[in-house]
Specification:
alpha/beta, Spore Coat Polysaccharide Biosynthesis Protein SpsA, Chain A, seven-stranded mixed sheet, two-stranded antiparallel ribbon, 13 strands, 30% helix, 28% strand
Length: 240
């Protein structure tokens, strides 16, 4: 199965870090996050990629072309100001019945073959990956009279973390105006439509997941990545 990597966003919240480079080329512990992702995919036996580029896409092309690895790759450029779903849709002629989609700025230790097997055993059109993440704030619900009805301190919630198996046939189930919605709005509307049809599944990943949208989150990501590789180097085993 091909892997489609979303590399078209601007990463504005990272400020000066992404003024000259796209977000997937930001370094985490002196390693380009996109390169770290590709190395892991290659180690798992995946070597066929589609890069959805946009913002400073030529730099993604240059970086990928310089990698000395046995991989096949293509680029899809839907333009600068299109949403995630439209970028995927624009690339649909480059893959067969299914595609494994991942964000270019997210790193996990997920075993991709287990994710694919889970999707194949289901009748889902799309299977998204979630992870349990602790919310840093207290969760509060209240009624129309502003009386608190529920309070939970720093709950652990399941979040979508930017990985999914997508059937090409799923695009036939949504109107064209959804595809062209901006940013992530189209993708979420797409997912909600599949929920109503009973065709959106989930694969819950409890291992490492790293993403960053701000400089502060980048510092946290660096610490997580150091711990991950330290564990592997000391003989620790990741998810089987």
């Amino acid at each position: 199965m091909k892997i489609i990597i979303m590399c078209g966003g601007r990463g504005k919240r990272l400020g000066t870090l992404t003024e000259k480079i796209p977000k997937p080329l930001v370094k985490v512990n002196n390693q380009i996050i996109l390169n770290v992702k590709l190395e892991q995919y290659l180690q798992q036996g995946f070597n066929d990629f589609i890069f959805c580029i946009g913002y400073k896409g030529s730099l993604i092309k240059n970086t990928v072309s310089k990698l000395k690895s046995n991989m096949n790759y293509q680029f899809s450029d839907a333009g600068l100001n299109v949403g995630i779903l439209e970028r995927i849709y624009n690339a649909k002629d480059l893959f067969d019945d299914q595609i494994l989609m991942t964000y270019g700025d997210t790193f996990t230790d997920i075993k991709l073959k287990k994710l694919i097997d889970s999707h194949h055993k289901s009748d889902n059109e799309v299977t998204i990956v979630t992870a349990p993440i602790q919310n840093p704030f207290g969760l509060v619900e209240f009624d129309k009279d502003n009386k608190v009805t529920y309070l939970k301190e720093k709950p652990i919630l399941n979040y979508y973390i930017g990985y999914a198996i997508i059937n090409k046939s799923s695009f036939d189930l949504i109107p064209s105006e959804v595809v062209s919605m901006p940013d992530g709005e189209g993708l979420i509307t797409f997912f909600k439509s599949l929920i109503k049809m009973g065709k959106l599944g989930v694969y819950n990943h409890s291992g490492l997941q790293i993403t960053f949208n701000t400089k502060e989150e980048l510092k946290v990501a660096e610490k997580k990545l150091i711990r991950f590789y330290t564990t592997l180097d000391s003989g620790g085993k990741d998810e089987k």
